[in-house]
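Work Package 4 report. The design task specified in the project plan requires that, given a folded chain encoded as structure tokens, an amino acid be chosen for each position. We show below one input record used in the internal validation round.
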């Protein structure tokens, strides 16, 4: 990662848009601040996928984690999208510690991303680590690329992924 090069590129980008003429914008400092912020933001892309802490399941009752917040960047326009993730699973042999779910969401959301992929990645990671009867991941988000283009304010997009083990040969 080359922060100085990223800062220089961002300053050039702002200059190309004419923002460097705006007295309210410090283009010189903004370039470095944006480079540092983005470097910190995407730092998990080289990390290993967090593990869930597993415990024996006391029963097969449904477990729901509702409205876990996340922030990400649209892989198409590179502006934020943000919202909540809800996870529902039916355990088989194990349940998982709650913090692991938050770390998995953070791991996948801290990279340029599409909401549809984020939803599937979270579901796949939980399904693989926990091997539940089923897992449903629902992501509800506001897409700033949509809003900044004037296509509505506060519109929420919902994506869902379902993984089921019923009927699988294992």
């Amino acid at each position: 990662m080359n922060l100085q090069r990223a800062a220089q590129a961002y300053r050039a980008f702002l200059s190309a848009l004419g923002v460097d003429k705006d007295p309210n914008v410090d283009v010189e400092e903004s370039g470095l601040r944006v480079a540092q912020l983005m470097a910190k933001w995407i730092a998990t892309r080289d990390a290993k996928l967090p593990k869930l802490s597993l415990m024996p399941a006391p029963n097969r009752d449904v477990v729901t984690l509702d409205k876990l917040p996340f922030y990400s960047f649209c892989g198409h326009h590179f502006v934020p999208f943000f919202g909540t993730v809800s996870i529902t699973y039916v355990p088989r042999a194990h349940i998982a510690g709650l913090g692991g779910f938050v770390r998995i969401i953070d791991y996948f959301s801290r990279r340029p991303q599409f909401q549809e992929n984020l939803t599937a990645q979270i579901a796949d990671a939980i399904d693989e680590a926990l091997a539940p009867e089923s897992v449903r991941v629902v992501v509800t988000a506001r897409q700033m690329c949509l809003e900044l283009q004037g296509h509505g304010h506060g519109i929420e997009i919902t994506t869902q992924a379902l993984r089921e083990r019923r009927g699988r040969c294992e």
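The chain has a mean pLDDT of 93. Validation will be extended to a larger panel in the next phase.
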